[in-house]
Amino acid sequence: MTETNVELEFDGAVAVLTLNRPDVLNSMTPALARDARAAIAQVNETPSARALLITGAGRAFCAGAELKDAFLNGSANQSAGEQLDVTMRDDFNPWVTDLDQLRIPVIAAVNGVAAGAGVGLALAADITVAARSASFILSFCPKLGLIPDVGTTWYLPRRIGLARATALALLGNRLDAQEAAQWGLIAQCVDDTQLLDTAMEMARTLARLPTGIALELRRALKHSQSNSLSAQLDYERERQCTLIESAAFREGVTAFREKRAPVFG
Q1: Is the pTM of this model over 0.90?
Q2: Domain 6-206 is of which CATH architecture?
């Protein structure tokens, strides 16, 4: 990438997207979101990319939206609300949607504080791992009179339950990585020096999965949140009847019979 807001590198089948505004703790701006979305589009169009790892440069993952004067006062042509509406509709929210619709699995390696909208970004990954020194902070309600955004109100209660999600959002307490793992907010808490190695090992494992299976799993789990048991059983049956005819399934069965690891195209 030529943009300085993000860096995109490829390590074999793993694409590594680094938020690159360390001087401001990788706080989110429309420009950062646009650059990140361009990088994700590039990953999606790269056939050899089989997993995406997202992390932050410096001592933070993402400190949330950058609170400039325009957030408070708006501009000459738009009120603060009108301006924020454009930013969220056109930049921040589509970034989360891009990750949700990505054909390959996504890992977030949280290397420091994830605050505000940065929490939503961290939770938008399929798997979230964090350094032991990392923390998660939702200051929207107690300090700004706002509600969590960028998907946080959707992901948070689904990961840790409504009671804990409500308390965390209303109180704005700092949740350290170890407790976040105990609560189920993240998949794993690791020593700081092991964060990227652990995340890369996971990413390389995910890169061996059949292309598109992460998207299938996301959709199945989403349906399970609102479906009755009967409806979910029907959904599983319908998808399995399609997936069983795929080349991936044939390779999986063949590899099982030949007692070898499957190699998915």
Answers
A1: yes
A2: Alpha-Beta Complex (3.90)
